[in-house]
UniProtKB/TrEMBL annotation:
Keywords: Membrane, Transmembrane, Transmembrane helix
Keyword field contains Membrane: yes
Organism: Pseudonocardia charpentierae
InterPro entries assigned to the protein according to its UniProt record, in alphabetical order: DUF6541
Taxonomic superkingdom: Bacteria
Record's protein name: DUF6541 family protein
Membrane-spanning intervals of the chain: 6-24, 31-53, 59-81, 102-121, 169-191, 198-217, 223-243, 255-275, 327-346, 358-378, 419-437, 444-464, 484-505, 517-539
Signal peptide: none
Amino acid sequence: MDDALVFVAAAVVAYVPGLVLLAAASVPPGLLMVALAPAASVAVAGVTAVLVAPVGLPFGPVALLAVTAAVGAAAVAVRLARPRELRVRARRVLRLRLQVPLVVGSVMVAVGVAFASWAWVAGIGPLATRPQEHDMIMHVLQTAYVTRTGRGAPWQLAPVDLLTGTPTWFYPSGVHLLAAATAGLTGGAVVPALNAQTVVLLAAAGCTGAAALGAVAARQLGLGRGSAMLVAGVASLVMAGLYRPALVLMHDGGILANAVSLSLVPAAVAGVLALGCPASGGPQHGGFAAVRVQQSHHAAIPRALPIRAGAGVGASIAGAVWCHPSAAVSIAVTTVAWWAGMAVAPRGRAELRRAVRGLAVAAGVTAVLLVPAVGPGLGQSARTANWPPDTGPVPFYRALGETLGFPYSGWIDPEQTRSQTWVLLLVLVGIGAVVALRRGIGPVAAFAVWSAVVIGAWLSPGTGVDALVTRFFYHAMLRTWSHVYLLAPVLAGLGVVLVADRVAVLARRRLPLRASWAALALVSVAFVGYAAAPAVGYARIAEVSVATRYRTPEFVRIGPDDDAAIAWLAAHIRPGERVFNSPNDGSTYLYVERGIPIVNIYTLGLTGVPYTYRLLQTFDTYPTDPAVRRQLADLDVRWVYVDTDTPAIGSAGSPEDWAGPDGFRLAPGLRDLDGLPGLREAFRSGSVTVYALDLAAVGPQPDGG
């Protein structure tokens, strides 16, 4: 299918169910609704999978459409029950659309989305391009499993045995549900569907989420709708170029689920904060901008979301957590720190009191939806908390520089020769402007708290107070560090708009200028200047980052030799037979593309399922080890897939530490297999060999068999 149509299908799946749900929950149309929609769509997809699983129906686009239609019917009923409110809201939306700052801000948000999307689309190339990074092995495989079987409920994923579907080993599935539904709409091709959803969720959703959080922050601080939309526009553009979270997680590990959940966090936080925005008609505060500027950029002080909108916000939070459970911590820490910062001002305390009932509704909905979403994975929380840190301790000066210097670092710049200096400058301006405004320091407080956590993690990885937070992120700096970046676009947007307003006020005192238009012009000039220089440079680096894992990969995990082996095996394997493999090569695509069951789905094996890693370690001992031979016979392993040219992977955290700390390329049990009894080379293409295994030809069972 044409890539453009796949993108359309991905956008429909990622947005329509969520928009329908949010409309039913009376979330007003606008930027916040658009930003919350992808997370809400994940929630709708998750509930759909939970509903169809007990009755034996498959999850897919038909089931998702049915549930979305049911929610839509409820939305229509709610609207018809309140026709006057519907007419008033329609007039308000029409009036707002006529305001120039709102239009300009909306265009700015779209430009930010376009910058981010270009980097991903250009870096991936054709949507059929297969990702080469490590964790994408599992993401592609799980999407294929949901697409092929229709099993998408949390307790059905991920299957240890692809042939029987049991047992299962919890793996967060929100992204895979949307990708599987997209594949179902586009002919069943998994890779194009997953790649399209990757672009939608990391580029479009990431930028609109940052924009929505910037807009809500501006309204909390007393700015009008027009000014808030300008803040949103700047935030969207800044987010588009940030290397963290999405780009570094995908480049350095293919950590798609956590990358998506982090991209959805700003929108979820914005939804929570919007439950307490001041009611319409409240007092307008002065600030950097004069009253005339405020009035021009202001239709009304922000109307708080209705209490029932808490249901939509709660569903969106659940959707983000459905993508990755750590999102619950990301949202909670950010929101609590933000509210604490706002509470230093009377305005902020009033907003918090106003939000209580809506927050109660949101918390209730979130709790109900998360019972099936993360309940099956609670047993793995200790494993996450005990994961070894991925960095060593560093001196304080370096910890401070790493945290606040916005360096690229990681595998794309291991020597740290580049940093996103313009982002740092805008953040510093934003911090100063928000503090000087004296209406609460919510975004500054949230930024400070996450900066403190990251600095603590640099100083003493895996220990100390900061470890209470980092334990939910595998004590991985790769994941934790990203939270500082999530708040940078908000502070940057506030800094640009507040300073522009201040300069416009000062200019009006000396020149015959309309301050409102002068402020708008200054913000526009700043936006164009950032887009023409820093943003272009950041986008080029982003495109290279994506391309080196997709279109022009630095290493190859799945390639032409694998394609030849997959085609050969598809013609020779018989029903019920399994292929023994190491997932650190192209063998997982046996199932993705042909539905051929493989023994191993995860490169290090699965905790609690010993054969998945013990066979990787000791397969070559089957002639003399009765336990190994018995396990192979029980699994009906008839074929062995070996690629001797695979990328190196880390082995920290392997079950029972079987792989040691130094990593590997080819699993130890698959080395030097030529000449073993009962094992015959059946096919070879380049570095890939398929062996036929006949356990009966090995000879009598050794002692203990």
